Amino acid sequence: MKKVLLYKPIPEQELKRLQTHFDVIQFDGVNTLNQEAFLTALSETEGLIGASADMSSSVLERAPKLKAASTISVGTDQYDLAYLANRNIPLMHTPGVLNETTADTIFTLIMCTARRAVELSNMVREGRWTKSIGENHFGTDIHGKTLGIIGMGRIGYAIAKRAHLGFDMKIQYSNRSQKPDAEQDLNATYMDMESLLKTSDFVCVMTPLTPETEGLIGKAEFAMMKKSAIFINGSRGKVIDESALIDALENGVIRAAGLDVFDVEPLPASSPLCKMDNAVVFPHIGSATSETRLAMVTCAVDNLINALNGDISENCANLHLLEK
Ligand code: 8YV
């Protein structure tokens, strides 16, 4: 049987299915304590499956027998796609199965941040609700406002659908290319990022992390936003300059931020973002529901089985780089 290295715990039913096809070596994440054991196991394996661990070329070069990798995520930034392609190794991912759940998470951030839900819930829990809520605790409306989406991919479209159909919001977006379906279905307006930053009430970043998007939103971009703007990041922490965001929040450059991803994860409790009432912080729960994570794992297991049998589908993230 081919050896496969699993580096993230998965539901029992899917582990058993994987074990019917392969000799599975399991790790519960990769860290400084198990790194050497992981790299030793990696040297023997033909398949790799998991998520939330660095798979740069310095790690992958320790896998001389590797034939295919399968990430339990839609994001592929933890892998060196070009390195894998140079060795003609496909990287499979899970596009599509998590769109709706992740869009729900982003809208949860939009609502919690706009209506100050976490801050005010804590006020109740801590016994500080002593009189009826006054102006200094008011939030801001979501319905009818302008939502600017930077990165109108599958998840960005799902967010825009909620905003347009559910909250009667005006949708505008910037993207590498125009998206006719978003314009026809959701009355979305395509524009350059600077115009979007200057005119949006809510700015939502949903781009993948690439060399082009790293540091995309920094001090200058926050300064372009409305002082009343609410900033949402559901992409990757490194797409923004986190220090610039903290400054913008502390100095009233923007109203508030809702964040599901961070430069360093887990976000240290010492971060100023953990102490600000105008920052809502989630522990990277974009796709984190039982139903969707099972669907992602099922997709990733199918992807690996197929790839090791030579069948790489549209779920291959580096197909455009592989030898034709
Ligand atoms: C989680 C994500 O990181 O799919 C992605 O790219 O960021 C999230 O879904 C992933 O699901 C971890 O397993």
From TrEMBL:
InterPro entries: D-isomer_2-hydroxyacid_DH, D-isomer_2_OHA_DH_cat_dom, D-isomer_DH_CS, D-isomer_DH_NAD-bd, NAD(P)-bd_dom_sf
The protein, known as: Glyoxylate/hydroxypyruvate reductase B
MF terms in GO: glyoxylate reductase (NADPH) activity; hydroxypyruvate reductase (NADH) activity; hydroxypyruvate reductase (NADPH) activity; NAD binding
EC number: 1.1.1.79, 1.1.1.81
Catalytic activity: (R)-glycerate + NADP(+) = 3-hydroxypyruvate + NADPH + H(+); glycolate + NADP(+) = glyoxylate + NADPH + H(+); (R)-glycerate + NAD(+) = 3-hydroxypyruvate + NADH + H(+)
Every D-isomer specific 2-hydroxyacid dehydrogenase NAD-binding domain range: 108-286
SUPFAM superfamilies (UniProt xref): Formate/glycerate dehydrogenase catalytic domain-like, NAD(P)-binding Rossmann-fold domains
Domain D-isomer specific 2-hydroxyacid dehydrogenase catalytic: 4-318
Protein family: Belongs to the D-isomer specific 2-hydroxyacid dehydrogenase family. GhrB subfamily.
Keywords: NAD, Oxidoreductase, Pyruvate
Gene Ontology cellular component list: cytosol
Source organism: Marinomonas ushuaiensis DSM 15871
